[in-house]
Amino acid sequence: MTPHDPPRFRVHPSPVGDILIVTTAEGIVTLHPFDGPLGAEIERVSLALRAVPMPDDSPDGPSAALFDAAITQLDEYFDGDRREFDLELDWRLVRGFTRDALEAVRDIPYGETAGYGEVAIAAGSPRAARAVGTACATTPFSIVVPVHRVVRADGSLGEYGGRPDVKKYLIELERPAVPVR
Predict the structure, then answer these.
(1) pTM of whole model > 0.85?
(2) Which pLDDT does position 4 carry in this prediction?
(3) Are 28 and 13 in contact (CB under 8 A)?
(4) Residue 125 CB burial class (10 angstroms; 0-12, 13-18, ≥19)
(5) Of 6, 115, 136, 177, which is most buried with the most CB atoms under 10 A?
(6) Any bridge partners for residue 150, and if so which?
């Protein structure tokens, strides 16, 4: 893919619904489960990118390797075989403290959670717990940047893009198996 190529997208089915994956020449610019018509999601992403993503389902398309890696890693994650993602992300839709917060979220270990305040401290702004909530709510990268691991101070799960059932599913997926004695 060259810098002048339009963004590309694929939709991948998962246990939490369809996942929209959009790539640019720099990497994955958004990856998140969506609930609703694909056209509305593409329109939302188009407005953010100021470019309309084109479908890319060709096995030898310009972003094929990146899509293949993302799909493989997502499938491995949902199968319980992957704990961390190793994907090239294009952070162009994330700026300032939001990026700091999301980078801190990436450090929350698999199977663990952290409060919004804890993430704010890790991101270098101890009084910015609400801003962490906004960062998590507006992230273009769900699952691969594990915002589902960020919980309320009282330990309750809270929202997840209006789909707390998805957050609960992801938390339970990561819950370590209890050894049998």
Answers:
(1) yes
(2) 67
(3) no
(4) middle
(5) 136
(6) 114
What are 120's two structure tokens? 């704010």
- Whole-angstrom Cα distance, residue 154 to residue 24? 39
Could you give the CA distance from residue 76 to residue 84 in angstroms, rounded to a whole number?
10
